[in-house]
Amino acid sequence: MTDATDGPEDSTDLAATAKAVIAAALPHVAFDGWSDKTLAYAVEDAGVDPGVSRLAFPRGGVDLALAYHHDRDAALAARLAEANLLDLRFRDRVALAIVTRLELVADEREAVRRGVAFFALPVHAADGAHAIWHTADTIWSALGDTSRDFNWYTKRTTLSAVYSSALLYWLGDTTPDFQATRDFVQRRIDNVMRFEEVKARVARNPIAAAMMKGPQRLLDHVKAPGDTPPPDLPGSWRRKT
Q1: Distances in Å between the alpha carbon of 32 and those of 49, 66, 117?
Q2: What is the total count of domains within the chain?
Q3: pLDDT value of position 211
Q4: Could you tell me the CA-to-CA distances from 233 to 10, 137, 144, 151 in Å, in that order?
């Protein structure tokens, strides 16, 4: 039975608490990482109800790190919604989205660096993969992707790899305005586009197309029930029922 007091107000309070704690946590992350200790400091500094903060971050530091990542993804979606992308080639839209995501955390590089190290730990690797997948899905959704077959997964998997490599490159980039990272992103996307062009040429070849018809038919059936991909299960091919 649901508590009668549960409702939109509670969700709003929880979201507001999360935002306040995330902002208060950033100065501590450089010293204590995305840890329970950082969370405790942030809750105290933000002056929020500890009980509400436990609802917002039930697993402690790991949920704090994920909340920070998702909050910046939400900011990316809002920024892309306001951008004029129609005059850009599609590859340039993707590049712009990746660079914009990095720009949003340009003043928080140490927090991002600590997050990369945190999610590299085996115990947090699945959560790290989820975070990167979430960013890739945010970008594709903002760019209007409507695929609901195997392409839904391949697009996000490919973009996750591109974004991950760009993120690591950016962490060590000292060039003005991160120009080296911008060039790196363009090169990676160009590589992907060349691969897609090869696939398209194969598809136009009658012999190659015939050879791929069987495997492609199988891949197209690897999708979530109801033709709706699971948004919260990175790397998962099927939602369990």
Answers
A1: 22, 16, 12
A2: 1
A3: 46
A4: 26, 11, 20, 16
Supply the DSSP symbol for 83. S
Q: Is residue 111 part of a domain?
A: yes
What amino acid is encoded at 46 in this protein?
A
CA distance 67 to 83: 24
Alpha carbon distance 110, 30 (integer Å)? 6
Whether 30 maps to a domain, the answer reads no
From residue 171, give the alpha-carbon distance in Å to each of 65, 74, 188, 201. Answer: 17, 21, 16, 37
Using the predicted structure, report yes or no on whether residue 223 has a pLDDT greater than 50.
no
Is 69 inside any structural domain? no
DSSP string, 113-126: HHHHHHHHSGGGHH
pLDDT tens readout for residues 1-17: 444 445 555 677 899 99
- Specify the pTM: 0.79
Give the C-alpha separation, 11 to 187, whole Å.
42
Report yes or no on 221 lying in a domain. yes
Residue 209, token pair as written in the block: 């197309």
Domain range for residue 152? 89-227
Cα 202-206-212 angle, rounded to 5 deg: 60
Please identify which residue in the block is written with the tokens 């077959």.
149
The model's pLDDT over 85-105, given as tens digits with 9 standing for 90+, comes to 988 999 999 999 999 999 999
